[in-house]
Amino acid sequence: MRTTSLREYSVCFSKSTLLLSLRMLLLVPAGLPVGSQGDSQSDNRVMDNITARQGDTVLLRCAQGDVVTHTAWLNRSSILYAGEDKWSVDPRVSLVSLNQEEFTIKIENVDMTDEGQYVCAVQTSSRPRTTSVHLLVQVPPKIINLSRDSVVNEGSNLTLMCQASGKPEPTITWKLISSSVDLGSEDEYLEIPSISRQRAGTYECTAVNDIDTDVRTVDITVNYAPMVSEGRDVGVTPSQRGALECEADAVPEADFEWYKDDRRIFSDFDGIEILNTGSLSKLTFFNVSDGDYGNYTCVAINKLGSSNTSFLLYVVIESTSSTLLQGPRAVQDGSGGPIGAHSHTCLLFIAILPFLLRF
Question: What is the CATH number assigned to the segment(s) 7-30+44-139?
Answer without folding.
Answer: 2.60.40.10
